[in-house]
Amino acid sequence: MASNVNPTVRRRRLGQELRRLRELKGMTAEEVAERLLVSQSKISRLENGRRSISQRDVRDLCGVYEVEDQRIVDSLMQMAKDSRQQGWWHAFGDIPYSVYIGLETDAESLRVYEPQIITGLLQTRAYAEAIIRGGSPEASEADNDKRVEVRLRRQGRITAETEPLRLWVVLDEASLHRIVGSRPVMREQLEHLVEMSQLPHITVQVLPFEVGAHAGINGQYSILEFADAADSSVVYIEGVTSDLYLEKPLDVQKYTVMYEHLRAQSLNVDQSRQLIERVAKEYAR
C-alpha cells in the first residue's frame, strides 16, 4: 500500500495534523522551536508540507505536545515514513516544481488561468519542446528533454480511463496568436486543443482581447481541489526562482472569486472552440 502513497499529499496531511496538535496544546511555532532548539522556519515548513518530515521529527513533536495515545504516535510515524517515499517524478531527477506535480497528481479538479501560453496539460509534444527550450535557453538539451517528458507524463491525469482530472482552463486570446515553434506547430496545437476541449471532463474558454482589463490581469494561477475533505484547496502561482502556494481559506476564496469573474468575462465553450478553430485555420495559410 505504501508504494502507492503520494508523498507530497502525505506530507501535507501530516503537517496539518502536527499543526492541529500544536494548536490544541496552545503553543506557537516559536515556542515549539525553542523547546526543540531548531528554527521557527523549520516548524513552519514541516507544518505546511514543504519539507520532508522524519520519524524523529514526529517523535520529538509528539513529545512536546504530550501525545499520550501511542496509536496516534504510531500512525503519525507511519505517515512520516510514507511521506519520504518518492513519486514517479523523482525518477527524472531534480524537478523545480516537484511539489506542484505531487499536488496535481492527487487533485480531483484543477482550474487554470493562462495569459500567455497554452496550459501544460493540453500541450502537444512539439509545442512543449518549443516552450521549454524558449523559456530556458541556458539549460542543457538533456535537461530540457527531461522537462518535456515530465510534462507529457503529467498529461496522464487528464487521459486516464478512470477518475481523470477535471480540468477547467481559461486562456487569454493572446495564447492563440503567440507563434510558439512555428505556424505548423501552432496549427497542430490548436487542433489538439479543440479535440481535448470536447472531452466531458475538460472545459476550455477563451478570454477575448475586447474584454480589456480583467480579473486575471496580474498573471497566471491555478486552483487545485482534492477529493479528501482533509486536504484543503491550494492556489499555485508559478515564479521564476520560486513558487507560491496559498492555502489559507480567505486566499483561496479570493482567487476562486477572481476565477469566476474570468469565466464570466470569457467566451462560452462553443464560442471559444469556434475561435480556436478559426485561428488554427489561419496558421494553415
UniProtKB/TrEMBL annotation:
Annotated InterPro entries: Cro/C1-type_HTH (IPR001387), DUF5753 (IPR043917), Lambda_DNA-bd_dom_sf (IPR010982)
Top-level taxon in the UniProt lineage: Bacteria
SUPFAM superfamilies: lambda repressor-like DNA-binding domains (SSF47413)
CDD domains assigned: HTH_XRE
PROSITE patterns, sorted: HTH_CROC1 (PS50943)
Domain HTH cro/C1-type: from-to ranges: 18-72
SMART domains named among the record's database cross-references: HTH_XRE
GO molecular function, one term: DNA binding
Protein name as it appears in the record: XRE family transcriptional regulator
Organism this protein belongs to: Streptomyces cahuitamycinicus
